Amino acid sequence: MNFMLNTLPKIPLCALVCLTFAVSGCGEHAAGETPAAASAPASGKTGENTLQITADQAKEANVGPVESIAFEHKREATGYIDFNQESAVQVFTPYQGRISTVRVKAGEDVRAGQVLYTVLIPDLPQAAATLISTAGILKQADETLERAKVLAEAKSIPLKELQQNISDQQAAEGNYQAALKVMTLFGLDPKDIKVIEDKHRLDNEMPVRSPIAGRVTSRAAAPGLLVQPGNAPAPVTVADINRLWMIANVPESELAAYHLGQAVSVHVQAYPDKTFKGEINYISDTVDPNVHRIALRAVIKDPEHLLRQQMLASFEISLGDATRTVAVPVNAVARETDGSFSVWIAKTPTVFTRRSVTPGIHQGDSVEILSGLKPGESIARDKALYLSNLYVTSGR
Question: How confident is the model at residue 36 (pLDDT cuts 50, 70, 90)?
């Protein structure tokens, strides 16, 4: 202690006197006028739920009337973009073989029935030969039966011979249909089979066609690659990218707000100013027991092909027409320590009283007030949390 006293700087006596006057209010201001600062009212609690602030603080509180605005009742959620799996096809070869040629590239648009790649099938020439043979036999049997019918009507041949011709024609028809079925197992469409039958073409190269119109979203095919049905990855995948899916998970507590056919507006970060339209086409029948959320799916229209698979997306669903209700700026509402919400009502330009309110939905910079306020009442439109803190700290 002696050390601290000895190390203090020496202050002249006149300075000590002036300092004492400044602290005690003596001197020039004590004997005469009171300074302007001393006449300004202090900020702090003046009663139960009542607070007085300075004029400068009142300016920052932005005192103004309670308004009513039209609130659009919406629900929001986040999800991701995916291909429409009902219009996305992994195009496998229907028969084992080696790829001969690849006719498309990834990102290329294709039409339904377009050849994507061809496969060399060792068994195809034999099946084609059987088809050609049975088709010839059937044609001959048909012609023989027609002649037999004419002769039988003229009683030029016995009935037994006519019956034999009918039996031969039926056998030829059965053999032809069996050969035809075998050709379809190779994945050939009727046009390909007709060419083989009419032109007697024995080719071991089988074309694999796209079953839908869309875009090639992936291509694993390459000449010489051994492929077989269902062996992943698919040589080519084609998807309709005009209509995509957005998949999201929503809280089970909001399930009643959603229904099939509901219109949605989707936004992605890549195009913040663009809105994609769609509608809900699926709501899951099960709830995830870990997070208690329900999956739903919306079909999104994308005619410009801007969306990509696995893009993060957010969507809004309108739950009805907009309704006009009491609203205040977000900063006009303070969350109290007990979890309640309150606003500060202006009784005079510098005196405010705290009132509990029930907030509703947010829209932009405004919050809906379900109870506790009426339009036209004057409130602190800003700094509500500051006023609540000032009330608590000044009351200690």
Answer: very low
Q: What CA–CA distance (Å, rounded) separates 316 from 264?
A: 6
Cβ–Cβ < 8 Å for 131, 197: yes
Contact 66, 379 (CB under 8 A): yes
Q: Taking the domains of the chain in order of start, what are their residue ranges?
A: 2-30, 44-72+323-394, 77-85+240-318, 94-238
Nearest alpha-carbon partner for 247 in 82, 87, 85: 82
Q: Which of 162, 168, 163 is nearest to 138 (CA)?
A: 168
Number of neighbours of residue 182 by Cβ within 10 angstroms: 17
Q: By the 8 A CB rule, do 117 and 238 touch?
A: no
User: Distance between CA atoms of 271 and 311, rounded to whole angstroms?
Assistant: 11
Q: Architecture of domain 77-85+240-318 in CATH? A: Beta Barrel (2.40)
Q: Which amino acid is at 99?
A: I
The residues near 234 (Cβ < 8 Å, ≥ 6 apart) are: 90, 91, 92, 218, 220
Q: 392 phi and psi, to 5 degrees?
A: -70, -45
Tokens of 168: 């031969």
d(C-alpha 86, C-alpha 81), whole Å: 14
The Cα–Cα gap between 44 and 231 comes to 77
Give me the CATH topology for the region 44-72+323-394: 2.40.420
Bridge partners for 64 per DSSP: 379
Q: Tell whether the torsion through CA atoms of 96, 101, 107 and 109 is positive or negative.
A: negative
By CB neighbour count within 10 A (0-12 exposed, 13-18 middle, 19+ buried), where does 384 fall?
buried
- Residue 24: both structure tokens together: 């005690």
- Two tokens at 89? 């096809």
> What gap in Å lies between CA 117 and CA 206, rounded to an integer?
9
Task: Please give the single-letter amino acid code of residue 194.
Answer: K
Is 94-238 CATH 2.40.50.100?
yes
Spatial separation of the C-alpha atoms in residues 66 and 377, rounded to whole Å: 5
pTM of the model: 0.55
Structure tokens given for 293: 């959320």
Examine the pLDDT at 86 and tell me if it is beyond 90. Answer: no
Is the predicted pLDDT of residue 122 greater than 80, yes or no? yes
Amino acid at position 350, single letter: T
Question: Over the Cα atoms of the chain, what is R_g?
Answer: 43
Mean pLDDT in residue range 273-281: 92
Q: Which amino acid is at 79?
A: G
Average of per-residue pLDDT values in the chain: 84
